[in-house]
Amino acid sequence: MDPKKITLIIFSTLLILLILIAIILLIILPKLISPSKRLSSCLSTFNNYFIINQQPIPNNGKYYNEFFKSYKYYGLRDFFYASSYKSYLPCGNTNDLVSYNALKYVLLKGARVINLDIFYKGLFPFEDNAKIIVGNVIDNKLSFLPGTPEKLQYLEFASCLQLIKELAWVKTDAPLILYLNLEFLPNQKLEYQIFSQLSSILPQFFLDKYYGFQRVNLGNIPINKASNRLIIVTNRKPIDGFLNEITNGVLSNNSVNIILYKITQKDTEYGGVKIHFPTKEKAIQTTSQNLVAVIKENDINPNNVDTPKIDTTNYDTSSQFELGVSISFMNWQNYPDKNDYMLKYLENFKNGGLILKPQNLIYVPRPPPPSYQRDTTFDYTNRNITGLKGFYNFNV
Q1: Pairwise CA distance, residues 380 & 202, whole Å
Q2: What are phi and psi of 71, to 5 degrees?
Q3: DSSP-assigned letters across all residues of 78-95
Q4: How far apart are CA 223 and CA 59, in angstroms?
Q5: Which pick of 76, 260, 324, 382 has the fewest CB atoms within 10 Å?
Q6: What is the C-alpha separation between 63 and 146, in angstroms, rounded?
């Protein structure tokens, strides 16, 4: 064969190989970024947030009630709360990393509602050595970035509680709501582990026992009873008696003590939470008499591997502030630029992570209407009439 042709074939083959290698590298390289570098890049977003410094609540939450002719305290339903969804995820929702620092920054920036997803480590949840962890769960399995070291696959629940203890009340005495989303099937052993760690790390911050067992409407709790306190909320009623006792509320759409509305990205195009109410007046009636929360669930998007946070988009919550929704969960890991919904959301909390609602969104309790005894002055009394030696006998 002609040496020139051989050279040309070899050159062409090498060129094709180089092109193929370049294409493969372009596809693979983004995924080869080390988890630690990815984590560092994602956490840098929090440096762009302004810190929410809690301003004093007017008159410490006390107001004069004209109906009772005495001073009363506003209830927990009368406030808006800066709320963080999946507070432990710094980069995204789909197969990604977890971080104690994400939780740390959310607390330090001023959030007053924290969300942790609770799962278990072990082959089976009912094993004796199964233990609770904090981690992201998709399709009933722990989700994390392929190749992630174990320390970035999940967090220790006790360590998360320790962070809350150290940071949650550094700059404020406002209550902190801890939403524990139990991602495992009802399991008394795992639930007892949750109780055990909560009661060993944060017992001094529990609400009074009167507010346990989800026995009261959380919105009715006076703000002075919740200052410097932890409010524990779960997504279902615990079956373990000890955890059930310290759980103050169940966050669900059929709950009687804290109401949840879940919306999708599609719902936001048609009014978001508004679609759950026939009228604005009905919505305000619900939010003014109850503690109400809204969650827009994160999307599942495998492209998150290459484009972090693509699956954690936020949405316009202005209608929720207009209707008096106390808790609007948001993805704090997203960059709050001038056109971002997250920045607009945070601007509502420039005076603190806990702010009083406008008066038109607050229900002012009033005494029940007086109860009157029936006036029997003109009531007929039964009389027995008998005649004709007992031939007839009847009552009139």
Answers
A1: 65
A2: -85, 140
A3: GEEEEEESSTT-SS-SSS
A4: 12
A5: 382
A6: 55
